[in-house]
Amino acid sequence: MLPRMGVCVSVLASGSRGNCAIVRSATTSVLIDAGISCRETFKRMKSSGDDPHTLSAILLTHEHSDHIMGLATMAKKVNVPVFMTAGTHHAWQRAMRDGEGQYPQIGKLEIFPAGHAFRVGDIDIMPFTIPHDAADPVGFTLRTEGVKVAFATDLGYIPVSVRDHLRGCDVLVMESNHDLEMLRVGPYPWSVKQRVMSRVGHLSNDALAEFFASDYDGGATYVVLAHLSEQNNHPELARGAAEKALGNRQNLLHNRVLLATQSAPLDPIQL
Ligand SMILES: [Zn+2]
Ligand SMILES: [Zn+2]
């Protein structure tokens, strides 16, 4: 594949059946989460113009299955450093124990504490704590070549600490999980509805719209709505809520709203 200049963001899959995205600079590329099978990740990478064998690292947000399902195989196949918090690592190992109680191992494990920046190649990465019912979950900002990209999915609400990390971004990948009314009347058992709606569950269209309307600096070129529920949301409801809140701040240069999906990769975003 031809080397390309500039920064590229590819959301390969997004939703409760698997999450996976790539941020690439001219020299470095990192995979964020490995929630679909290794085979499907490779297939989607190739269709987005990414060569799996030029990956520099894998970053994990948390241990829920829709973020780690393909990890063990991916890590073996591409043999690159895998970065996660200690809490995520312990929870991943416990969840993936084999029949004899043996913990799975990662060849090149890198543990980071939330809130401490690190670097992969020419990409500066800042992991930040998010409110979600996992062991030690994080979102990420990635900076390279003067571009800043943020990933904030799987969070019950947007605390002030997270809002601070979302300033000055060129691409915001944000959770727009459910429409509250669809969730309320939908098929989930009440206990699951309560979990999704809780402060450590998932972000609703309205909660994201509230952020856009009240506390967002408006500077991103692209806003990607991600982790949409297939049962409790509709892409046009998510888009409508976000676009209404962004209002006249949307134009060719700012706040173009894109929707990430489960079934197919989003067209790569070139910056
Ligand atoms: Zn989760
Ligand atoms: Zn998730």
Which sheet architecture does the biggest sheet show? 7 strands, mixed
Q: Helix share of residues? A: 25-40%
Q: Which cofactors or ions or other ligands sit in this model?
A: zinc ion
Q: Can you list the strand order of the major beta sheet?
A: 6-5-4-3-2-1-14
Alpha-carbon Rg, integer: 18 Å
Task: Please tag this protein with its features.
single chain; 271 residues; alpha/beta; 7-stranded mixed sheet; 14 strands; binds zinc ion
Topology:
Blueprint: E1 8-13, E2 20-24, E3 29-32, H1 38-47, E4 57-59, H2 65-68, H3 71-78, E5 82-84, H4 86-95, E6 109-111, E7 118-120, E8 123-129, E9 138-144, E10 147-152, H5 160-165, E11 171-175, H6 180-185, H7 190-197, H8 205-214, E12 222-226, H9 235-246, E13 256-259, E14 269-270
Parallel strand pairs: 3-4, 4-5, 5-6, 10-11, 11-12, 12-13
Antiparallel strand pairs: 1-2, 1-14, 2-3, 7-8, 8-9, 9-10
Helix pairs in contact: 8-9
The protein binds zinc ion (2 copies).
Describe the protein.
With 271 residues, this protein is α/β, with parallel strands linked by helices. It is 27% helix and 23% strand. It has helices at 38-47, 65-68, 71-78, 86-95, 160-165, 180-185, 190-197, 205-214, 235-246; strands at residues 8-13, 20-24, 29-32, 57-59, 82-84, 109-111, 118-120, 123-129, 138-144, 147-152, 171-175, 222-226, 256-259, 269-270. A hairpin with an 8-residue loop joins strand 8 and strand 9 (138-144). Helix 8 (205-214) runs parallel beside helix 9 (235-246). It is globular. The two termini are 19 Å apart. The structure holds zinc ion (2 copies). The site of one zinc ion has 6 residues, from helix 2.
